[in-house]
Structures are given as C-alpha cells and as structure tokens.
Write a structure and sequence with these properties.
This is Glucosamine-6-phosphate deaminase. The chain is α/β, with parallel strands linked by helices. Helix content is 33%, strand content 18%. The structure holds 2-amino-2-deoxy-6-O-phosphono-alpha-D-glucopyranose. 2-amino-2-deoxy-6-O-phosphono-alpha-D-glucopyranose binds next to loops.
C-alpha cells in the first residue's frame, strides 16, 4: 500500500475518528491563539463527520470562533439559495449549528459570469495563502477518481478553476438532481496543487461502490487518470475506510 489506510468497523466510527483529528487541529491552534484553516468537502461521505463536529460543539464546548474554512468546490452555475448547492449543504450540515463567523466561510461562487471566473479563482487561491494555508483538508472520493471535482485528466499543478464534470460524476449526481439534464455539467474546484498544499489530508471512503477506485488510489500508479492517486505524493495523508470499502481489495 502506498497510502496509510485505517479500516474501521463502520463509517460512524470512522467519522468519529476524523472529527476528533479535526477538533485536535482546532484546539491546538486555539491554544496558540491562532486561526485554524480547514479545507472542507461535500458529498455523503463527510456528513457524519460534520454531525460529530456539531456534537463536539454542543456537548464538549468545541468552539469554531478561531476557524476559517475553504470548501473544495461548487457546481457551476449554481445559486447559493438552491437546495442542491454546496453552500446550502454546508450550512445545513455544519455552519448553521456551530459558532463560526460567516465571514470566515469560503465556498466557490456558482453565480459568477463566465468572464469573472478566472479572477475569482485566483483570488480564492490568494485568500488560502493569506490565511497561512490549509491546516487540514477533508476529502471524499468520487467513483471517477475525483477529489474535489478534479476529474480524470487533471494535472498535478492544477489550481482553483472551472472544470467539466466526468460522465460518471454526472450519472452519480442524478440521484440528487432528478435527471441528467438537471445536473450542472461544470463546477469550480480547488486544483490538485491546492489540495496537495494542505499540511494534513484525511480522506473518507465508505461503501462497496467506492472499493474499485479506492484500490487504484491506494495501490495503483500516480496518474491523471486517477486524480486521487496524486495523494500518494503528499507526506501526511491518511485514508479511513469502512469494511465494505475494502471488499474489492
Ligand atoms: C462530490 C464532491 C466530491 C466528493 C464526491 C463523492 O460530488 N464534489 O468532493 O468527494 O463527489 O461524493 P460522495 O461522498 O457522496 O460519494
């Protein structure tokens, strides 16, 4: 194995461990009087991680007042008011339930005009750097091999940009959007380079459907055909899986 992997009994257990690691980063920074910079993800995989962070906020006084967040991606075009938006997802699952300052929340803007996108993306990168870089990046993985929305063909030096979604990703999004025509075919996503610049990376992979692509990510060659395989180039990545996710290893 080319990446460190922990196999947990179930995703609840995995989510508890990942949330504990994120909480540890927040508290460590708090103790030093510094802001913690979190890179956050959407999709079904992180939902229980966010639920656990909310529990830690309510039951163990974990504060997010010193936390800055940058989300990986957003569909394009997409209104933040849409229930399908990643903005809606993040507030519903996390931000509405914690004491984070909304001014410290950053999510790519799906409402831009096309000629505003490049400038927005450069500014997104600048803001991450201005905050001192991402302390910990949470990731899921798509069946296409994407991290964020870095689909097959993404290069190692890619940064935040507008991308086209892979047919597999569009097919998987039909369950959220109702029909293929309703799925946005583009997104704004952090790049591979943006993700690899995080100091620490944790990836959650749950369920049988992810097993084949996880095997390629963990054991296969580093290749743009499996963008998640670029994680093998990072020195502090940990992969958390449930039993089902290892079924095809
Ligand atoms: C989504 C996100 C990815 C996520 C992936 C897997 O569309 N853009 O960041 O990791 O697809 O989603 P899920 O966790 O629901 O399987």
């Amino acid at each position: 194995e080319k990446l460190p992997v922990y196999v947990l009994e179930n995703k609840q257990e995995g989510a508890r461990i990942i949330a504990g690691i994120i909480a540890g980063v927040i508290k460590e920074k708090q103790a030093r009087g510094e802001m913690a910079v979190l890179g956050l993800a959407t999709g079904s995989s992180p939902v229980k991680v966010y639920r656990e962070l909310v529990r830690l906020h309510h039951e163990e006084e974990l504060s997010f007042k010193n936390v800055i967040t940058f989300n990986l991606d957003e569909y394009f075009p997409m209104s933040p008011d849409s229930h399908k938006s990643y903005v809606h997802f993040m507030y519903k699952h996390l931000f509405n339930h914690i004491d984070i300052d909304p001014a410290n929340v950053h999510i790519p803007d799906g409402t831009l005009k096309i000629d505003q996108v490049a400038e927005f993306c450069n500014a997104y990168e600048d803001k991450i750097r201005a905050c001192g870089g991402i302390d910990i990046q949470l990731l899921g993985i798509g069946r296409s091999g994407h991290i964020g929305f870095n689909e097959p063909g993404a290069t190692v030096n890619s940064q935040t940009r507008l991308v086209k979604l892979d047919p597999i990703t569009i097919a998987d999004a039909i369950k959220d959007f109702g029909s293929e025509e309703a799925v946005p075919h583009r997104a704004i996503t952090m790049g591979i380079d943006t993700i690899l610049s995080a100091r620490k990376i944790v990836l959650a992979g749950w369920g049988k459907s992810k097993s084949p692509i996880l095997k390629k990510m963990i054991e296969g060659p580093v290749t743009p055909e499996v963008p998640a395989s670029f994680l093998q180039m990072h020195e502090d990545v940990t992969v958390y899986l449930d039993e089902a996710a290892t079924s095809e290893f």
